[in-house]
Amino acid sequence: MADSNIKRSFYRNLLDSNTNNFKKNEGKHIALLGPRKCGKTSIIKNHIKSIKDAVPVYVDFSKISLNPENFAVEYIGNIAFSFLKKSSKDYKKFLVLDALVKMEGELNSPSAFSLIKTIENELLKIKPSQKLIVESAFRFADALGRDSKKKFVIVLDNVENLLDMNNFSQIKDVFSLMNFSSGNVSYIAASSAVKESLHTLKNFECYEMKNLDKDESVLLIEENAGKIDAGSSEEIFNLCRGNLYAMIAVSQRFKEVKSAKKAFLIELLQKNNSLYNYCNDSLNYYYNRARGQTLLKTILKVVANEELRLTDIAKKIYRSAPVTKSVIERLIQTDIIHKNGNKFCFTDDVLRLWVKLTSLGYEFDEIDDKMIDEVLKQL
Fold first, then answer.
1. Considering Cα of 356, then 361, then 367, then 368, what sign does the dihedral take?
2. What are the sequence ranges of the domains in the chain?
3. CATH class of the region 9-208
4. What is the CATH number of domain 282-355?
5. Is the pTM for the entire model greater than 0.85?
6. pLDDT tens-digit profile of 61-91?
7. E strand map for 95-237
8. Nearest Cα to 80, choosing from 29, 148, 24?
9. Which tens digit of pLDDT belongs to each residue from 289-315?
């Protein structure tokens, strides 16, 4: 799917201003929090492309290894790769310790290279200190910055995955191993785990990204749908509830079918289309962050059909109120459900509709007009 040109100027300006302040030794660590596919990563990547007089480093914690030993090597490798400005074809060698220990001359930083040697020496031991290994990795950019007189802006994307390292007995609190007071390193974090991140990212100034407002949405829809009448534009906005990713998908489909509702349902319910895959992946993301998938799925199907109080949900799933409350609290912690007054509802209304319709059997390899007419009755 094509990237949007909608700039989300507040967040872009926020990052630009903070990085400029960091260069003057006044910046803070910033975290952008929000639902999946709301534009966090695009905004951050656009920002780091514009950085001058500092070294931008992008680390995706959904792809990097998260056992302490491999993490340390790969994390340092990402920093060294960005510092040396190597081409992408060389990237893989920076993920191997044997290659890093041969970079003493290139790095030209005795203190940074000593941290690589510390990790190498620990890994030769029968019982290496995982805490020392991870701590050394986090100190690497600061050491390299001191020796090279460079500043580093390090992006920690999908940072909630880093918390997996807390499962190692020697780690317990991975963020406590990071030096947030270094004048050489500024962090930008991004996470879809909003509640968890607000609790754990204590050294960051956190900003929650919301769905687009109507004016922003109209610009986005016109950008992706081409010439479109005001009524269809408003209908796409209402169907997608300001969800950036959904509006791009539906607007692009609109160019083909010339109907907002038809475009929405084709994207939502036809397998392997962008919006179908977004909802499917989102649901798996939330499931993977919670325990007890069987009851979770049942509750989500119930809430997808209507907003209900705790006692009503408990009756529908044949469980006691305390058991139901415990499961719902896990869903709330993963950000898929929130409480509205005394009732529970989906945070993402597009995902709610997908769960509702697919649980009723409305998902198709190919969808035709007759099927669309049938589904429209459910909207």
1. negative
2. 9-208, 214-270, 282-355
3. alpha beta
4. 1.10.10.10
5. yes
6. 988 888 899 999 999 999 999 999 998 888 9
7. 152-157, 185-191, 205-208
8. 148
9. 876 667 888 899 999 989 999 999 999
